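cron nightly-structures :: item 1 of 1
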Amino acid sequence: MTRVALLWHMHQPFYEDLATGEHILPWVRLHATKDYWGMVALLREFPGVKATFNLVPSLLVQLEAFAQDRARDRHLEIGLKPADALTEEERAYCIEEFFHAHPPRMIDPYPRYRELLAKREVNGPGLSIRAKAAQFSTEELRDLQVWHKLVWIDPYYFDRDERVRALVAKGSRFTEGDKATLRAVELELLRRVVPEYRDAATRGQIEISTSPFYHPILPLLCDTDIYLRTHPTSRMPRERFRRPEDAAAQLSRAVALHERLFGRQPVGLWPSEGSVSDAMVPIVAACGFQWMATDEEILAKSTGREFIRDRYGNVENPEALYRAYRVGREGQQVGCGFRDHTLSDLIGFTYASWNPDDAAENFVRRLADAGSRYSARTNGAEATIFVILDGENAWEHFEGQGRPFLRAVYTRLASHPALRTVTMAEACAAPRDSLPSIFPGSWINANFYIWIGHADDQRAWSQLADARRALEGATGVAPEALARAWEEMLIAEGSDWFWWYGDDHSSEHDLVFDELFRRHVRNIYRAIDMPVPEELFVTNITTHPPSSGIVAPTSVITPTIDGEATNYFEWLGAGSVETVAVGDAMHEVSVRELSITEIEFGFDLENLYVRVSGPAPMRDLISGGEQVSLNFLKPEGCRIVITGGDGGVRAQMTVVPRGAVGPTRHCPDMKAAAGRLLELQVPFQCLGLTKLATVAFFVSLNRHGAEVEHHPRHQPIELQVPDERFPAKNWTA
């Protein structure tokens, strides 16, 4: 009899910004309604099948917040807003963001959704997204609000829930009441996820394992220099990151959350990205884990024995692969299973294009054949085959969201005379073979290149090291602020931010992940009341740098600082910043518009001028307790904060050298005025700048001590202090 250990890995990074409460992307919520409940609920149909589900804590805490209806994301808010009340920006957001679904399986089968996508695409790339949105009627937008969520509802509900069946049958001309019905279904599904896993574990059909809380690469937390084992000549971060105590904290927090949600301590660990090293094994053992798992290539490199496969992908020497091992030194050992790379990837990347029954038959036959070959080479011993893969992202590429394939697989496994399914704990119990040392690497190419091999990765690790050192040295910080800073540190250590840096992975949300990483690191400094390093306001992406949206000044200006548009010509020739870029997908959660929609900047020979405008009068904005600030990267440490109130507008400059607390500098010639607009005049001498020096800054909006907007998004406004030759050099007829 061959034992088959299936592990479905369920993971999402932590999308919430703790400083603002924003959940930046909607994938926790959408996958919860389509995959997280349905994947485990499906097993009720197959009581003889066992499986293991790995639920990452960063996913679970966000899922819990959405299930309790206390989490919000912009995607959700705009989807729920009455279609006839959508602003121009929100209409554009719908057209840009509400088609994130696999077209062949999730859009094309539904005529109305397909029609709406065709309408968006009919004018090609030549038309702006706002112009495209203007062509959609309110009725079409409401239909889009429904379909973008409806296709992410679990297939079980499509088949058996009368509310969902009625919406699908209706197809178009939806009402606001239909949207409310769909929201009720969404909340119902969100609230069923954790109880369904708990029930399945209680009846003994599944095991629930966990991962480090915010999904960091544990070997790199223990010591980034471990990367040199596989890439000895690689450039590295400017400072070595070596914090095994953070690895321990990520694990102990995972255990605590698991106990709270499921009433028992987890015995199994899927280390993030299957990443292992000798340094992390004793930490895993000390946290009480009895098993972990990684990829077959790690086993091959640990034993010096390559796994040879024939032209069909079958392992020709299976006797070393299809068994569990004890990993680590005596007294600090953990059981370990090694995934069959080919079998796992067939599900993840190949079977989606097959007929479900043919794919299931092929998969189960491969399992049985592998077990037979193992038995033949080990005098009749029982093989244990580990199949481990992502449990959510593949299914949108399958017919019926993968349910026909899974039903076909489970049907065959439940009745096969030579196969039986086991949990990972059962598969890894009492292994006979030991590995005193394990090769350091992940389930991708048995190394850590993806997370530290690129210059962009290395810059991010350097930023982590700087922040970790600042946090450790922080004094005089209130306990709650210090706790928040530590939480942000653990979040920033997550693997997902590094996954998208470099040239090996890319998506339309690269900028979102880059900004989220830098935002979490910035929040560390803000929580401990230390200056934020300037580089954290600039994108780490160098492989495909984003468009800046910054237009440089073309002539000198000398506007009147009165907070009003005095005349057309006073800002003519100024530079400008595009603050709203719908395609960026990095939007604030709040339903209202951005408070800052345009920034203009320029100079004469003595002064820097900045004008800020928004949908509401800036006078009202800053009188309501919000602050607008100019944060300078050059000269480093300068910050100008503009506030308002009964006493009028006040602009204060602080100079904060890096790593120190700076004094307030009084500049009598600095002027600020707020009316319909906010206008500011800053003498270059106040900034300590001379002619031809470089000045670089961001404009940010702060509310209750937290930054809620900063512009430009990914790189600063940068210009050179002019000299007398500037007008002549830039003169045009």
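cron nightly-structures :: done
Confidence is low (pLDDT under 50) at residues 581-592.
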